[in-house]
User: What shape does this take?
Amino acid sequence: MKQRVRSDTTMLLALGGMALATTVLGARKPARPPRQALRRQAGREIPMHIAAASRFNHSSSLLALSVLADSAVEHYRGSFKNPAMFIPLVSASLSFFAGLHGGHDRRAASHPVRHGIYAFAAVAGIVGTGFHIYNVTKRTGGWSWNNLFYAAPLGAPTALLLSGGLGAIGERLRDQPAEDPHLLGMPAGSALALAVSAGLLGTVGEVGLLHFRGAFQHPAMYAPVIIPPVAAALMAQTALTRPRPRPRTRWWLRLTAGLGLLGMGFHARGIARCQGGWRNWSQNIPSGPPLPAPPSFTALALAGLAALRLRQTEK
Amino acid sequence: MQHPRARDRRAPDVFRKGGWVPMREYPCDEEVDFVIVGTGAGGATLACRLAEQGFKVVALDAGAWWRPLEEFASDEAHQQKLYWTDERICDGENPLKMGGNNSGKAVGGSTVHFAMVSLRFRPEWFKCRSLLGYGADWPIDWREMWHYYDEVEQALSIAGPINYPWGPPRKRYPYRSHELNAAALVLARGAEAMGTAWSATPLATVSAPQGKSPPCVYRGFCVAGCATNAKQSALVTWIPRALKAGAEIRDLAMAGRIETNDVGRAVGVEYFRDGAWRFQRARNVVVAGYAIETPRLLLLSANHRFPDGLANSSGLVGKNLMVQSNQAVWGVMDEEIRGYKGPPSLSINEHWNYEDKGKDFFGGYAYMSQGPLPAGWASTQNGRGLWGAELSREMQKYNHQAGLKIVGETLPQERNRVTLADEKDQYGLPIARITYAFCDNDKKLIAHSLHFMEQALEAAGGKEIWRQEDDTCHLNGTARMGDDPRTSVVNADCRSWDIPNLWICDGSVFPTVGGVNPSLTIQAIACRTADRIHAIAQRGEL
Ligand SMILES: Cc1cc2nc3c(=O)[nH]c(=O)nc-3n(C[C@H](O)[C@H](O)[C@H](O)COP(=O)(O)OP(=O)(O)OC[C@H]3O[C@@H](n4cnc5c(N)ncnc54)[C@H](O)[C@@H]3O)c2cc1C
Ligand code: SF4
Assistant: This one.
């Protein structure tokens, strides 16, 4: 038990330390804005928007990985009762590989297969949400807290939608000119930042519900409902105000990315606190806090960093 | 278990296999502030709260001090070690079945194997004579009780719904309600079909980690003792707190007599432990042995000054015993139910506790979903006369059974009572004779509930419905509290009218029982008593 307390304290300290570092570093070191719309990467100069698109591919693949692991565990727990429960596994796997592929692709044109995979993921996410809503409402009690807590989680398929969305945005960005790329009728950087902001808020909603179900029994459970909303607000500000260097936003996004990884550590502790702990992994991984969930914040924050970088080159 | 474990300044650590925690010890000849007999819902709570106030507390329990993680087997027969199965004589028109379903013998008392349902009284019940026309008024106001309910719900991390459909608003339950199993959903469907509300049951088992307790694993062995410590029994909540605050708890210590002195004050308790009778001196004695053993001990302690037993000038010690009726309807469902998955009573309908129209009886009842364990279920079937091939056929349907069972109010009657028999127990003490009969009002309530539940179960899809009419649960009321020394045994502070340093703090003090399980109320009263003792001590009137 002492050990548990100690490792919890260590994690809390790490979280606090990250927050402190963010504020201090963010305040101290005004970052140099990247003036040129070119980015040096692996010895080559590539257009800024392509670098951002690749980042979005990567973030999409990290999200997909999280969806893949999460839905595999959850749908296994649900005994794959409905064959449709395999769809997110297939779709997330495809998105994952598409993301890896896109992350290394420097071409200034979208890739039709990747694009198709992302569209599929987005549709699967929407349809999945529909299924989950149906699962909640068909239960006795309907829209009750108990069903929101324990029926199919409403927010889970949206992670797949997000993965598809981020990837698709990346693909469309590639089709834009290097000079002044636009998406959805606004500067591409703004569009990306807004997408990330919305994604963060959606994810926070899901986390808020599930941590409420867990009665916020550990103080660290508040972190993911406090830190990412600030990141979402900063992203919205980035999108909607004039581009300028934003060191604090950058550090806050890094903090959010770190939070996702640290969250996994906390969830691992949560599994250890279940009866039998990790020795009883085959029961406690499915029934404890979801191990793959927190890295969604990392994925979104990384996408946010790419959006920020692009936005800072815009006028 | 033969030999006490709590000794040599250490006690079993309930959270670690083979573990120990330090425990303060008091010599028997030291006059401690309080000696408490019984460490269940009433005794453990009070021991903890008094020790936390700085009083020197010694608590005795006749039962053993178990470490749930290593000593609670998934075996209904083995777990009978948790029950009070000492001999008793039961008579009257409706002789009670004593044992597992109503009494525990362990450090932690009956809460070690209780079903964790944690409900508040309906406010009017505290004044049911004045407001509802039956029973007796409590000397405590419901608003004060509401405050203490809050305290106990926090202390036990009760997992309950966000909105409870009945009664005045309450604070949010500290933990969220558990996922409903199929048995609970049967109740829900039936309740909706009958046009009443239903709810997830507030339960004393955690739905997320709490301190050293892991979340509930939904294996459903609750009434045979929880082997994970998810259940927030007195054993894993108040007792560890009490130890930390400096209380000493003596396991396998059977109190046989409370001594009083010439001026009529209690001076200590004689108890049997480790093969010998011993005597613990104390400035105050608290009896918390539950509604059979409490009056028994008071009657056993009769002496020349108090020939009818202690605290008995009203003649009411042992009288007004109230069980709660525990009848059920059962049926077979098309779908698989597996009611044993999870705590047994995950959903509840309190409609008839709060609705007074349409009743031909006083009082109320709640009914809950059920999850009987296999051996218990087989014995229920034996009770119906099923045996051999017939029993085997019926047991095949076990996974499809669903049931609804009441916790029903019974009225206080003086003829329902605990007295001493001539027979002696293993300690050489006269055993309790328990006399019980339902009154007409009780029978009408039961009939109403069976009729209503039958309709609800049928509406939920139940087939082959049958009634189980013989069960009772929970024991209360043999040392009732009140405002008047002539008609009650203790006052609102659980202090006896006759002997100012003798207190009774358990289910015995209930003037009425209401239609909800009693443990939350017992613990709330214990918390209140602790605060009252604090206030009285401050005034120098202890
Ligand atoms: C199977 C079962 C399920 C239940 N389910 C629920 C439920 O879901 N919800 C609810 O609210 N209530 C429930 N109850 C009832 C609840 O457990 C009791 O009402 C409550 O524990 C009574 O508290 P108490 O302090 O009066 O007595 P207890 O908790 O029974 O404690 C009395 C203790 O005193 C000890 N004792 C007695 N006499 C002596 C003596 N002479 N010397 C030393 N020690 C002595 C006993 O060993 C025992 O440990 C249930 C009870 C049972 C048996
Ligand atoms: S179902 Fe929960 S409370 Fe009941 S015995 Fe199992 S873990 Fe304990």
